[in-house]
Amino acid sequence: MVRVIKDFIKKFVRRYRILPVYWLYHFLKWVPLAVKYNVNYFSKLGELTDNRFESSWSLRWPCLYDATPTTGFDPHYIYHTSWAARVVVRINPEYHVDLSSSLYFVSIASAFIPVRCYDYRPAEIRLTGLECGRADITNLPFEDNSIKSLSCMHVMEHIGLGRYGDPFDPKGDLRGISEMIRVLAPEGNLLFVVPVGGVPKLQFNAHRIYTYRQIKEYFRSLELEEFSLVTDKGSFVENASEDDSNQQAYGCGCFWFKKTAKAN
């Protein structure tokens, strides 16, 4: 009976995203695991400490969902950052500029290529090869045609929705795109990643979902070098098509654009 209730709540949560129901679902999911694991753990506590470690109720840190047959991961963030790192290595720029993308990407990439990363909420990271600063993506502090290698990944779908403290602006994403095109140097490369699907959608303040055709239109002054895709099923498709993108509800579109010398 409990399982039937949990399945119903799970489907309800996925469809309507109502927080109290979401909490109830996770409470019902957590309680049986917590009881079972606590009984097993404390019955073996003497053995587990092995006379080498201190352990008490006050030191508890229960991790209840990790006994899985494989290691889970977020396909969007594993694949798009891996894709971007490989492209940057191929480009091999003197330095790379990033706008608010994954901190894991910029921190690891900076081990191989100097990276300057900018964010509306700058991260206080101290690493060799990495510089962090503040910038508003809708008003970038760079000269026209000045950046040869640029990335903005899983970011633009949030601009103007207020989620991260930025002002509400229904065209915030379009202003950001215009700014990136402005600062990109002739023959410069832009790595751009956003959610994609068959229908453009706005999901409250979480994000926008674009279509492949929308992105191509927004960047019509640039040449598309490559389009790859993370599907709804979590697989990575290199050199994907518009049709592949349109079959998704919430895919991850990875666009590599290049500004031709005659773009301006």
Number of helices: 8
CATH class identity of the largest domain? Alpha Beta
Taking Cα atoms only, what radius of gyration do you get, to the nearest Å?
22 Å
CATH superfamily of the largest domain: Vaccinia Virus protein VP39
Give the SSE string: HHHHEHEEEHEEEHEEHE
* Overall pLDDT level: 89
Residue fraction in strands? 15-25%
- Which structural category fits the helices and strands? alpha/beta
N-to-C terminal Cα separation, in Å? 66 Å
How many domains, as an integer?
2
The biggest beta sheet, please?
A: 8 strands, mixed
General form: globular
Spatial order of the strands forming the largest sheet: 3-2-1-4-5-10-8-9
- Using the coordinates shown, work out and report the CATH topology of the largest domain: Rossmann fold
Number of strands: 10
Written overview of the protein:
- This protein has 264 residues and is of the alpha/beta class.
- The chain folds into 2 domains: 2-59, no CATH class; 75-258, Vaccinia Virus protein VP39 (Rossmann fold, 3-Layer(aba) Sandwich).
- The protein contains 8 helices and 10 strands.
- The strands form 2 sheets. An 8-stranded mixed sheet has the order 3-2-1-4-5-10-8-9. Strands 6-7 form a two-stranded antiparallel ribbon.
- α6 links the parallel β4 and β5 (184-196).
